[in-house]
Backbone:
């Protein structure tokens, strides 16, 4: 494998830092009238971010090269991580994303029951789904009591 | 003296059933979260933060204080019973707590932990009550350049306190500072990094930052590693405990010695005042000091109650210490105080020396609650609910995370009633998840975000006042003091060789 995930992540951080710095440059001159302008602080932060991310990227690339000889170990680790554990965080992210999209159109109750059920299934399995639906409904009702009844937060409903 | 009277007077608020309910409920929630490995009091506070909108600010802060105190001592439950610290600050407790559990003295170990927590927590709170007004008076003397140097000092110390990952901590702090620059500039009518989005004009809200950083990223971390849960449930089923087993005999307390309690508490308090140090460092240093000065150092790590006392006294004393910079300078020392600062900001209150001087009546009840939690709730909760807490931590993980996920996502909606904030929580949560996965300390991200706006404002004001001359930071005494302090901390924390492990 040419690049490992750590290198890609650190490269993204470096890319983010450079991107931030470039946008900061476009905000205008950092100094004017003996004072700092809105671009000055972001430029400073951008410089620090580039410095830190460069060090981290360099370390990761160096580490990757030193590990290249023990390629078998990496393959074993990758295999060990494959399976359910590898995709569960992605499933949770997708679940939260869909929940946010459906929250207003479907209302609190329906969207939340689907969401909590999906989280429970992701953290366990597809067994005893009926029991899990009942648990989800109880949790969502509890959430309704806490937010709307106890603390007076108005939650969206399907009927407007 | 006036402030002390105000705090003493605030104890009367605890006679109100509603306020007492919030304080006790906060303590129980904090204990439950701290005792479940993977969950922390920080997560509990992050989840409950949206609810503080509907509470009076003093009541909200009182509940926060009890969660904070509970969070420090709750971790000792699983640290002792199954050798899995419920909270990072209880790591050192496990070293002697678990061997005691194996010797059949688990409840006694928990009793020592609770007593140590009670003494440490109470001493920390008393020191805070006595010293905070003086620190606030001194803080009033710090002018604009000094404020910049102080904030820079706080960020530098937070970063270098993350031993072994200073560069990563620096990068995370930069990301926090970058996020803080999104929105309208504080001094000129100009937007920055909004990419044309009107919803970003006011900047990123603190609520999605906190919920994303601590709650959503935690759910994602747990989703990746839900392995040891079944083992833990099995281990907990085997444990049977009765209430009287929790009370440590007076002879053992005498053997441990008053000095051990006092010294560990003072170490914890002092460590707490340093930004970024936290309960883990406090308990580590107190434990190291206790081993170093002990006549029988070989007994530590094999079930010596002195080790438990040192660790727990120190980590609970950290609570009082960490509130000093938060209340007097507006600099949070750890994630919990960062969220408590969020409670103030959300309610439109500016933390800093003026708060202690001008609005002490808002702060005094919180300190009363901190002391009440240490003196009354820690021993009472362990005695009454200890046997049940050990069973509670065996709750089904799927149901638990279902509840946490719902509270986290809906909680971020409460701030502005917009799904935009929910989406921001998710984005920040994903960012924090990947940072944590790569061993970046996200606390520096949050503190960078919180301190960023003031850091920029004081930097620009200082240079504006000095006609752009950067020497102003070295010619003003208050600023020079913090510059020298920064150099001293850099020397001791980053350059000088670290302490060797005492065990």
Residues:
């Amino acid at each position: 494998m040419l690049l490992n995930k750590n290198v890609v992540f650190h490269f993204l951080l470096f890319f983010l830092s450079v991107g931030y710095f470039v946008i900061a440059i476009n905000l205008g001159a950092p100094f004017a009238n003996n004072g700092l302008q809105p671009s000055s602080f972001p430029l400073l932060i951008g410089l620090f971010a580039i410095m830190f991310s460069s060090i981290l990227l360099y370390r990761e690339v160096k580490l990757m090269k030193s590990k290249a000889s023990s390629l078998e170990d990496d393959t074993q680790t990758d295999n060990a991580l494959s399976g359910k554990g590898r995709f569960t965080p992605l499933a949770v992210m997708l679940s939260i994303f869909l929940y946010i999209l459906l929250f207003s159109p479907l209302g609190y109750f329906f969207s939340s029951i689907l969401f909590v059920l999906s989280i429970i299934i992701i953290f366990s399995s597809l067994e005893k789904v009926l029991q899990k639906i009942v648990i989800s409904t109880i949790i969502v009702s509890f959430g309704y009591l806490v937010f709307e009844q106890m603390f007076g937060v108005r939650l969206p409903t399907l009927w407007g | 003296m006036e402030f002390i009277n105000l705090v003493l007077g605030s104890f009367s608020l605890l006679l109100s059933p509603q306020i007492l309910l919030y304080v006790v409920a906060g303590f129980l929630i904090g204990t439950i979260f701290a005792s479940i490995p993977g969950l922390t009091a920080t997560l509990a506070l992050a989840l409950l933060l949206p609810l503080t909108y509907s509470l009076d600010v003093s009541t909200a802060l009182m509940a926060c204080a009890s969660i904070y105190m509970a969070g420090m001592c709750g971790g000792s439950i699983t640290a002792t019973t199954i050798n899995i610290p419920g909270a990072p600050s209880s790591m050192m407790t496990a070293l002697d707590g678990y061997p005691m559990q194996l010797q059949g003295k688990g409840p006694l170990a928990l009793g020592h932990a609770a007593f140590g927590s009670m003494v440490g927590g109470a001493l920390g709170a008393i020191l805070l009550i006595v010293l905070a007004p003086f620190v606030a008076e001194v803080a009033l003397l710090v002018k604009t350049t000094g404020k910049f140097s102080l904030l820079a000092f706080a960020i530098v110390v937070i970063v270098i306190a993350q031993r072994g990952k200073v560069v990563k901590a620096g990068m995370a702090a930069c990301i926090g500072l970058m996020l803080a620059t999104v929105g309208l500039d504080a001094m000129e009518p100009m937007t920055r990094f909004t990419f044309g989005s009107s919803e970003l004009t006011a900047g990123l809200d603190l609520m999605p930052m906190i919920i994303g950083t601590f709650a959503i990223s935690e759910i994602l971390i747990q989703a990746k590693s839900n392995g040891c849960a079944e083992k833990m449930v099995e281990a907990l089923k085997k444990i049977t405990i009765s209430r009287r087993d929790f009370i440590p005999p007076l002879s053992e307390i005498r053997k441990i010695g008053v000095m051990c309690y006092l010294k560990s508490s003072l170490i914890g308090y002092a460590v707490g005042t340093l930004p970024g140090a936290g309960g883990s460092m406090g308990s580590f240093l107190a434990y190291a000091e206790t081993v170093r000065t002990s006549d029988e150092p070989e007994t530590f790590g094999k079930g010596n109650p002195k080790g438990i006392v040192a660790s727990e006294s120190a980590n609970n004393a950290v609570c009082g210490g960490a509130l000093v910079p938060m209340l007097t300078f507006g600099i949070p020392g750890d994630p919990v105080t960062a969220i408590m600062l969020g409670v103030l900001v959300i309610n439109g209150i500016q933390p800093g020396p003026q708060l202690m001087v001008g609005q002490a009546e808002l702060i005094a009840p919180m300190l009363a609650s901190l002391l009440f939690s240490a003196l009354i709730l820690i021993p009472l909760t362990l005695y009454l609910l200890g046997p049940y807490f050990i069973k509670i931590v065996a709750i089904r993980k799927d149901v638990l995370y279902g509840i946490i996920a719902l509270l986290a996502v809906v909680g971020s909606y409460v701030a502005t009633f917009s799904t935009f904030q929910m989406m921001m929580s998710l984005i920040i949560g994903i960012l924090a998840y990947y940072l944590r996965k790569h061993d970046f300390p996200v606390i520096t991200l949050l503190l960078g975000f919180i301190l960023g706006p003031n850091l920029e404002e004081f930097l620009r004001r200082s240079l504006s006042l000095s006609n752009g001359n950067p020497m102003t930071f070295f010619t003003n005494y208050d600023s020079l003091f913090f510059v020298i302090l920064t150099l001293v901390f850099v020397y001791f924390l980053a350059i000088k060789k670290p302490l060797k492990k005492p065990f």
